[in-house]
Amino acid sequence: MSSSSLQVVMLLLALFSLSALVAASAGNFGQDFDITWGNDHVKMLDGGRFLTLSLDNTSGSAFQSKNEYLFGRIDMQIKLVSGNSAGTVTTYYLSSQGPNHDEIDFEFLGNLSGDPYIVHTNVFTHGEGNREQQFYLWFDPTKAFHTYSFIWNSQVIMFLVDNIPIRVFNNLKSLGVPFPNSQPMRIYSSLWNADDWATRGGLVKTDWTKAPFIASYRNFEANACVWSSGSSSCVYNSNSLQTNTWQDQALDATGRRRIRWVQKKYMIYNYCTDLKRFPQGLPPECERSKLH
């Protein structure tokens, strides 16, 4: 074999190895998740790269990750229930287990046709939540897939939509504010009926003639530290080693501009401005960090 031919073969082998690595690091619902509820209401397509949850008047559906993670960046592309989705809730969140669990939430509250979804966010630490912020979106989340992300490291939790930060929760343990940094979490998602509270405080009920309601998922990525319960430690996955900027990521100047834009135009509730809810004074993180 000539040297030029050998170089071509080596190049092809390198490209093949690279493509195999990328394929291995890409999320696969069949390999990475377990169905936890409504098995017959879950469909996996395209070799596990595409998943749908459905809800009707017999059952909803849900899945959870096989792995637990302690810090990382989690991305999921979701297309939400279209049409009259009032009463339905699509969730996507991280959570540990037990009564003193930590949790980081996206919840998408359906609405009447033509009205916008409400994106509900919350942070739980040691079983305590009550840190709600809610937003409308600047696009129709039912027409196409959009990427919803968590960045979670030892200093900050960031919520992002299409890589635009909408909320930040800072580590202010020095002020006595608990921060989730010791309990590994799984990834969860579900589609269920919550018409007792989800739409206008429960005034609008689910229209079951529109069922089945369907939410679609694709392009899951976990650039994260995978927890090993046997050794009580975590191991960075291969994808995380390549894109580990999340480990010390915080808002830069561009991020601060974007989050101000989102909160000015699309935020509809912020617990940090709800003086009626906290007559004795706002939580300390609101005053110190001016939480986004």
Automatic annotation (TrEMBL):
One GO MF term attached to the UniProt entry: xyloglucan:xyloglucosyl transferase activity
Top EC class for this record: transferase
GO process annotations (BP): cell wall biogenesis; cell wall organization; xyloglucan metabolic process
GO cellular component: apoplast
Record: active site: 103 (nucleophile), 107 (proton donor)
Keywords: Apoplast, Cell wall, Cell wall biogenesis/degradation, Disulfide bond, Glycoprotein, Glycosidase, Hydrolase, Secreted, Signal, Transferase
Post-translational modification: Contains at least one intrachain disulfide bond essential for its enzymatic activity.
Stretch forming the signal peptide: 1-26
Major subcellular site: secreted
Coiled-coil intervals: none
EC number in record: 2.4.1.207
Xref: Gene3D superfamilies: 2.60.120.200
Pfam families: Glyco_hydro_16, XET_C
Family: Belongs to the glycosyl hydrolase 16 family.
Protein name in the entry: Xyloglucan endotransglucosylase/hydrolase
